[in-house]
Amino acid sequence: MIRTTFTQELGITHPIASAGMARVAQADLTAAVSEAGGLGCLGGSTMMPDELHRQIESIKARTSNPWAVNILLPESLTTEDDSAWVPVREALGRMSPEDQAKMDGIKAFLTPGVVSRQVEIILEARPAAVVVTFGTPKWFIDECRQRGITTMALVGSIGAARRADEDGVDILVAQGTEGGGHTGRASTLTLVPGVVDIVDKPVLAAGGIADGRGLAAALAVGAVGAWVGTRFVATPEAFGHQRFKERVVNGALNQVDISKAYSGKTMRGFRNEWTREWESKQDQAAPFPLQYAVAGPLVETGYIDGDTERGMMPAGQSVQNIHDIRPAGDVVREMSAEAERIVKNLGASFAP
């Protein structure tokens, strides 16, 4: 069994966390990963307050093990300046009622005041950890610390890692460009050791990790565990259309690209007709979260309808290493066991 500062601090068995993927990481997946001994993470950022509360209660009913919640805290979502939301309302107003209904899954990104309610619900629930993305406001970190909640932050650059460290985050998740969803430009094997060198805190590796080999490599470059996303898309517990999961299983490296076509931020996912339309006008993408309204129902049709031609299907370069759909608990246990075998074999290979 692999024990690290990550497993010790969170009280988990395996140094594996499932990524808090918006829409994909709901209660089913979160509870399954935690019950297997990893750290399941609820993708709470897209959930309206009532739904977030229901999902949290569902996790609590399924596992007594530690779990986490992911939340987005950029200024564009937390602002109370009503004028900043006018373009979003106008874009939504131009949609048909049917298309507006398709946006329900990400309504939280398009509704002012939601983030403050999300924060209240999460702090009251007191998960083992909260994972923040697109910003690490010190007031929120302090609120978590007062309640004994471990704080984690996704970072995609050395600069972001320094800021998160200064804001008092407990654990950093260094995500390389190989990762699916919102991601940066630095590779995992350059970013992770770079972050390890500048912070005196535990660092998880993310981006391109889908099996025990990836976990072992992460440990070798100084990480204390792995943050895994795309591998968990291809599980029965993940939310999403079967065609999305099958596309991950059958995907190739050259099919996943970075685009601003859906959210206005750099997001890695499957290339399709919609992303190709935006290849020549990336600089024209509206800022986050307005681009979601520009893309309209396409941000949901991938998950709900299995629309491979235009629907959003975030995925990382690890699709080339994923060959089946299997239960999330099996993924956790097998990944950890494989990494342990690799580490032991390497030790034996280099022993005098």
Automatic annotation (TrEMBL):
Signal peptide: none annotated. Pfam families: NMO. PANTHER family: 2-NITROPROPANE DIOXYGENASE (PTHR32332). It comes from Saccharopolyspora mangrovi. It comes from the Bacteria. This is Nitronate monooxygenase. Keywords: Flavoprotein, FMN, Monooxygenase, Oxidoreductase. GO terms for molecular function: monooxygenase activity. Its EC number is 1.13.12.-. The keyword NAD does not apply. CDD domains: NPD_like.
